[in-house]
Amino acid sequence: MYSKDQLEQWLEQSKTLCSSGKTADYIPALAKANPHTLGITLFPIGSPPISCGDESAIFTLQSISKVFTLLLALMDHGEEYVFERVGMEPTGDDFNSMLKLELVPPGKPFNPLINAGAITVTSMIKGESLIQKWERIAAFISTFLGEDEVRFNQEVYSSEKNTANRNRSLAYFLKDVGVLEGDVEENLDLYFKHCAIEVDCRQLARMGMILAGNGIDPVTSAQIVPKRYVQIAKTFMLTCGMYNASGEFAIKAGIPAKSGVSGGILAVVPGKLGIGVIGPALNEKGNSIAGVHLLQKIASAWELSMF
Ligand SMILES: NC(=O)CC[C@H](N)C(=O)O
């Protein structure tokens, strides 16, 4: 049904856009990525994955990890607790904006997929120590990958940690108003760590395929995450997952997606398939310029929109 030849043609067309994008440079290690990389994997539920382009390129999850820390926080505490501390609304602002934090006392972040919200969610992850919390996040994500452990990019992690003045200000503000739990630097460290988990397109598509199937592990048939929490995550992906381009992406593609500044995009076609894309050249909103184009093409041509 999903033709690889067709996918290859579309990928070549989208690839021409790479030269008009720019790799993220506020995290210096991310600036080194090849802007001409473009790869994709489609992972249908119950069928083998279909990949093309630079499908084996390895990249860090960055903001895509926010979906999974949200799921884990929901499993740790339940809906009520989580949404007392982070909201459910899109901001329309940049992902690292601090603009709205002072607007709604006491500084409750608008949603869990912007940086302020994600750092708050990270602070909710249960564990006796920073190491134990990290091990829980890594183990949770490795289940989605179908691996025993996750790969981790030390260089990207250190690069972000050494330059994260904006995230530091967000986190200290959140601590000041009593929204962030625990030690600020420890929480930031955990946040930078989960952003630096590495995947390739196939692994990312597998993560999406599990979300598409409402949290069921395709190998063991185990329910990895309660269906209700997967539903919440997918809803946030649709309304807030592509930063302040989420509305446009919902109109043009109509599927839940989450992007990261590494150029990765995780997309989900509910009930059908997961998609993993990498294209490090970003547009002005911080989304993969060629990746967005390719996903929109696939979604409209194959009528994948949920609507
Ligand atoms: N949009 C993103 O991918 C942002 C993630 C990145 N680690 C940051 O906090 O800035």
Automatic annotation (TrEMBL):
Which SUPFAM superfamilies does the record match to this protein? Answer: beta-lactamase/transpeptidase-like
Q: What is its EC number?
A: 3.5.1.2
Cited Gene3D superfamilies: DD-peptidase/beta-lactamase superfamily (3.40.710.10)
Keyword annotations: Acetylation, Hydrolase
InterPro entries, alphabetically?
Beta-lactam/transpept-like, Glutaminase
Superkingdom of the source species: Bacteria
UniProt key word Acetylation: yes
Positions contributing to substrate binding: S63, N115, E160, N167, Y191, Y243, V261
The protein's annotated catalytic reaction(s) are: L-glutamine + H2O = L-glutamate + NH4(+)
One annotated GO molecular function is: glutaminase activity
Task: Indicate the family of this protein.
Answer: Belongs to the glutaminase family.
Its quaternary organisation is: Homotetramer.
Q: Name it.
A: Glutaminase
Task: Tell me the organism.
Answer: Marinicrinis lubricantis
